Amino acid sequence: MNESSRIKPAQALRLLRRALGGRISIPLTVLRERLARPSEKVSLEIGPASPGLRVRGRAYALGAAIGFAARVDADGVYVDGVRRTVRIRLSEVELSTDADAPGPLADAIRTGLIDTKNPATLIGNMVSLPEMVVSAEGQYLIVDLMKVPALQRNERLQAALAAVSSYLCVTGIQVSGDAIELQLGLLPGGVKEAALSTARAVLTPAVRFLWPEGMKR
To answer: pTM here?
Structure first.
C-alpha cells in the first residue's frame, strides 16, 4: 500500500469520532415529571431557554413562601483523573415574596439585601451542600458526578464508569426545542487518561482483595 494512502492515527480517530459521536436527546417532560415536586415545600417549573433552561418555582423557607426564577446553563463533563465534573451556571436570578410574608429571609428579599448576582455563593452560604458539589462560587456550581452517593458506595461501579466515560463522554449540554441534547465525544481526557482509567478499573478488584482495609479508608 502506498504510504501516502494509509490512514494516519489522527485521521482514524477523527473518522471514529464521526462514526460513533452523536447526540442523546432527553425530553424535558422527563425532568418535569421527576422534579415538578421534589418535596412538599418546593415546587418547580422547567422550560427551555436555549441553550439552557429557565427554572421557576416556590419554596417555603424560614416560615415564608419564596418565589424564585433562574436561568441554568451547563457545560459538558470534564474528565480529570477520577473526577467527572460538570460546571453549572446560575444567572438571571429573581427572588420574590408576598408583602406580608414573615421572617428575616422575606424581609431581606423585600429590601433588596440579597445579592442575586452571585447565586452560587449565596446558596453555599445559606445551606449545607452535598459532598458532590465541590465548589459554589459566584454564578457557578461545580458538581463531581463521581461523588454521587450511589457511586461512592460502589467502588467497582465507580471505577467502571470512570473507565467508560474516559472513552466516550458527554462533551456538551444544550437545550434544543423541548429537549436536552447531550453531545457525545471520544477520548475527552485524551489517550493517556483513557489508559489510566482502564488500569484503575482493572486493578480495583485486585487491590480490594489484597488490601481490603485500605480500600475502606
So the answer is: 0.79
